[in-house]
Amino acid sequence: MSGAGDDLDHWADARSSMQQFERAATRVSLPWFGGASLLAVAVVLFITLGVLLDLSRTRLSDSFAWTRHGDAILLRLVDIRQSVAQAEANARAFALIPDPANVAALTAAQREWRTDEAALRALVSDNPAQQQRLDQIYGLVEARFARLEWFVRLDAAARAAIVAMPADRPSRTQQRRLSAQITTRLAAFRAVEIGLLDERRAFAERDSTILDYLSIALALLAPLCGVAGFYLLFQERHRRHARELQMELIHTQRLALMGETASMLAHEVNQPLAAATNYLSVVNRLAAGTGGTEKLRETAQKAAEQINRAVSIVQRLRNFIAKRDSERASESAALVVAEAVSLFGTLRTTIRLRTDIAPGLPNLYIDRVQIEQVLVNLLRNALEAMQASERRELDLSVSAVAGGMVQFALRDTGPGLPREVAERLFRPFVSTKPDGMGVGLSICRKIVSDHGGRIWAMPAEGGGTVFAFTLPGHDGDTAAEAA
Ligand code: ADP
After folding, report:
1. Dist. CA 224–CA 1, nearest whole Å
2. Ligand 1 centroid distance, CA of 432 (Å)
3. pLDDT value of position 217
4. Rounded distance from Cα 439 to ligand 1 centre (Å)
5. Which tens digits make up the pLDDT trace of 267-301?
6. From the CA of 421, how far away is ligand 1's center (Å)?
7. In 3D, which of 363, 358, 357, 310 has the Cα closest to residue 338?
8. In testing the pocket of ligand 1, which one of 248, 254, 374, 441 has its CB within 8 Å of the most ligand atoms?
9. pLDDT digits 0-9 by tens, 177-204
10. Which residue's CA lies nearest to atom 23 of ligand 1?
């Protein structure tokens, strides 16, 4: 047994170092600033870029609006100057030829000036300084129009006298000065407006230039972040996949190691059992030969039977874990169930197991050992699930279902499937047990699907879980015939 002991030590060492390795592998955490974060940043940058472009467009249209506003003011100023000049020309013409049309034109020019003045006032309503300037212009223009009106209303002689006056007479000089003041004030008003317009345009242009630079920077940065994000995501997936493969390899190694160790143990146990059987046969013969007591012979016989039973169990265990190629043959479902249950019974015996095998089932063309492995896995899981349950009952039924299939269903009275594994139940390395490898159900699925069947799990009525799988019946071959 020393060989087996060494193997056990070896197994324990390997197991603990692999557990450490697994823990280290699952601890490998991804950088917090992963691909997903970069993609999120790219999306934010694209949104910001959109906002900036919109702002830039708004600033540009502001600039156009200001230009239109400035143009409107300048046009009104020109119109006002023209109205005044027009009125002066009409008054002069009337003095030469007293045509009433000139008076009408003067009145029209005055009307026009008032319309222009009101429009101009509305345009500069947001600028008190310009309003004040306009007030002054208003006073001067109105005074000029009043004087022109007075002039055309004089009689012809009075008008002729005024026209004949020397140009340096104070009243004539005063009128010229009034006219010049109007021109100067209008020019000053215009200069202020042009200055304002330039200032606003410069502001708008500066803002729009800053926004343009920011937009260009973002337009470069956002796709870069996007590409980098996708690259990192791809990398992370690749790393995760590599890690999964690594874990799978570790598990496979563990399984292989476990298989070898169990095989070795079975081999080691087999030899002393066989030897003991031989010795007991000798005892049996000796007791019979020397006329020893019947009781001694019976006991020895029973001991031999028990040891033989142990040998056959060990043999089954050996078959079960031996590495072997798939061997399919026509088997009866009842035999498979009986062997699996007896194999399982060697592991645990304290649970009540009820089997219900429907009569007249077709035979199955299967690898018996593999299907027994499926059953043992399901039985072992059910047992482990029921460890803390008050009621511990197992029902295993086998029946014929549609499509010529045979269905195995194992119902337990455990707590049901944990929510975190329910969806990924048959995937490898899914386990809620501290020492679980999480490969049992994935192996079951592989075996069942290799045999052309299907496996699934569902909650059992009244609590617990039902694991069921189907296998195709072997055409024209029933258990009765096979027997
Ligand atoms: P392992 O037994 O090593 O954990 P399995 O693949 O056999 O691996 O099982 C995966 C998981 O499925 C178990 O950890 C357990 O959470 C759950 N499970 C399996 N069978 C049952 C059952 N009968 N009742 C409740 N949960 C189960």
Report:
1. 66
2. 7
3. 92
4. 9
5. 666 667 777 777 777 777 777 765 557 777 777 77
6. 8
7. 357
8. 441
9. 988 999 999 999 999 999 998 888 888 8
10. 382
